Amino acid sequence: MTPTIHNITIYAGSYFNLPVQWMTGEPAVGVNLAGCTVKMQIRKTAASAEVLYELSTANGKITFVDATIGKFQVIITGEESGNFTFFRGVYDLEIHYPSGGNVYRLMQGSVTIDLNVTRGA
């Protein structure tokens, strides 16, 4: 499976929500992800050892909307994005199946942090 290329801009200090649905076939239908976990990491480069930010179903930053039809959302709060100390990076998003160890890279791309100009209350 070839991952979708989707470049992301996160506006520092603002809520970020990326809705995702994995669909396949003709006609397209949602893939059943019941029992799966989803994991996304941001790194400076693909070869970097350091993880700049991690999102997953395990840490609650990725949540299923309806796992039976492949719908989930990636969420970063405004407080979290306002504390980012990096400005650019790369990411990929993987689906991990519980049995058989199958892993599918669904998406990948660049991440840009757009700093906010208005600060303070």
Strand content: over 45%
Total DSSP helices: 1
Main sheet record:
6 strands, mixed
Helical content class: under 10%
Please mark out the parts with pLDDT under 50 across 5 or more consecutive residues, or reply none. Answer: none
Rg of Cα set: 15 Å
Total E-strand runs: 11
Elements, N to C (H/E): EEEEEEEEEHEE
Structural class comes to: mainly beta
Determine the mean pLDDT: 95
N→C terminal distance: 46 Å
The geometry reads as globular
Summary, kept brief:
By secondary structure, the protein is mainly beta. The strands form three sheets. Strands 1, 2, 6, 7, 10 and 11 form a six-stranded mixed sheet that branches. Strands 3-9-8 form a three-stranded antiparallel sheet. Strands 4-5 form a two-stranded antiparallel ribbon.
Structural commentary:
With 121 residues, the chain is mainly beta. Helix content is 4%, strand content 50%. It has one helix spanning 78-82; strands at 4-5, 8-11, 16-21, 23-24, 29-30, 37-43, 51-56, 62-66, 71-76, 88-96, 103-114. The strands form three sheets. Strands 1, 2, 6, 7, 10 and 11 form a six-stranded mixed beta sheet that branches. It has a three-stranded antiparallel beta sheet with strand order 3-9-8. The longest helix has 5 residues, at 78-82. 16% of the residues are buried. The model has no long low-confidence stretch (mean pLDDT 95).
